[in-house]
Design a protein that fits this description.
This protein has helices spanning 60-78, 104-114, and strands at 23-25, 86-93, 147-152, 163-170. The protein is an alpha+beta fold and 174 residues long. The protein has a single domain, classed as RutC-like (60s Ribosomal Protein L30, Chain: A). A 4-stranded mixed β-sheet has the order 1-4-2-3, with helices on one face. The two termini are 23 Å apart.
């Protein structure tokens, strides 16, 4: 169920599945500590510089979200699913040190690298920005638009995390 009159919405109004559909429910997933040049416990520690190589203006939240979304993709594949099978998503964001609010824009840019980046009318892949760089092909072309909630929280389980995400995916009937 998509917003009326929009050919490239970021999220669905809601999701319907048929009866007797097997579901996969992830735990809350945060970013891995993949940046050894950053101090332990810092938000920068939980980024992967290889994901943002060549991009300008990438925020720490965006960089962490890219790691989380890649982790989700890998976990889904291990369970016989893909990001195209995701039907709901809950994202928890913390505000970066010194910021007034969570970085929703950075989260949304990262999200579009893995979700909602194929126009539903033209079926063409939509170029998406990473940071302030010129938009380009996403990391994963995927037309799925999960029903999604994103909220700012006071803290997350691991010092330095700014992003934690959980997803529900539906197995396709075979």
């Amino acid at each position: 169920m998509l917003p009326e009159g929009q050919s490239n919405p970021a999220i669905a109004n809601g999701v319907v599945t048929g009866g007797e559909v097997a579901l996969y429910q992830s735990s809350g997933l945060g970013p891995s500590a993949l940046n050894p040049s950053a101090p332990d416990g810092s938000p920068e520690r939980y980024t992967d510089p290889s994901l943002t190589e060549g991009a300008q203006g990438v925020t720490v939240t965006e960089a962490q979200a890219l790691v989380v979304l890649r982790n989700i993709k890998n976990n889904l594949e291990a369970a016989g699913l893909t990001p195209a099978d995701v039907i709901t998503m809950k994202c928890y964001l913390m505000k970066p040190p010194g910021a007034e609010t969570a970085d929703y824009a950075g989260w949304n840019r990262a999200y579009r690298q893995y979700f909602a980046n194929i126009d539903l009318t033209t079926h063409q892949v939509v170029a998406v920005p990473m940071g302030t760089s010129t938009p380009r092909a996403p990391l994963l072309a995927n037309q799925a638009r999960p029903a999604r909630a994103t909220m700012e929280v006071a803290s997350l389980a691991v010092k330095g995390w700014l992003v934690e995400v959980e997803v529900t995916a539906a197995y396709r009937r075979r």
